Amino acid sequence: MIENKILRVNENERLTLENDSKQNNCYIVNIQGNNIQTKKEFLELMKKKFELPDSSGWDSYTDWMTDLSWIDNQCFCIVIEDYANFLKNDAEAKKIVIEIFEEDILPYWQKDVMKTVVDGKPRLFNVYLVE
């Protein structure tokens, strides 16, 4: 069984993990943490990177991130570079981003997809927080 997780990594670990993800044909999204300082910037970036139909708030973002039917890759990888500066002045939004991954997105792709989608298949979905 796959295990989706959030991992804190250093730059060398990130390079190794990202190379492994490329070899496994993962859909990789790199986020420059120091460039994302507001909830709106985060949601707009995710909408663009994942081609989400809507991400006007946390609920719509979560709904679309637990769909992604238009992406054929069997795994996803989100790399947040410079995590310490990601949403640096909005601790509440940073907390919510991580909670949504931990409580909604990662569990969905690990096992819940099999309960909610006909012939739904789990997909590997990891988030790397680069220190």
Rounded Rg? 14 Å
Beta-strand portion reads 15-25%
Tally of individual helices: 4
Number of strands: 4
Average the pLDDT over all residues and give the rounded result: 94
Question: Mind explaining what this structure looks like?
Answer:
With 131 residues, the chain is α/β, with parallel strands linked by helices. It is built from four helices and four strands. A four-stranded parallel beta sheet has the order 1-4-3-2, with helices on both faces. Helix 4 (91-116) links the parallel strand 3 (75-81) and strand 4 (124-130). The longest helix has 26 residues, at 91-116.
Summarize the helices and strands and which ones pair or pack.
Blueprint: E1 6-9, H1 11-23, E2 27-32, H2 39-50, H3 58-65, E3 75-81, H4 91-116, E4 124-130
Parallel strand pairs: 1-4, 2-3, 3-4
Please outline what is shown here.
The chain is 45% helix and 18% strand. It has helices at 11-23, 39-50, 58-65, 91-116, and strands spanning 6-9, 27-32, 75-81, 124-130.
What keyword list fits this structure?
single chain; 4 strands
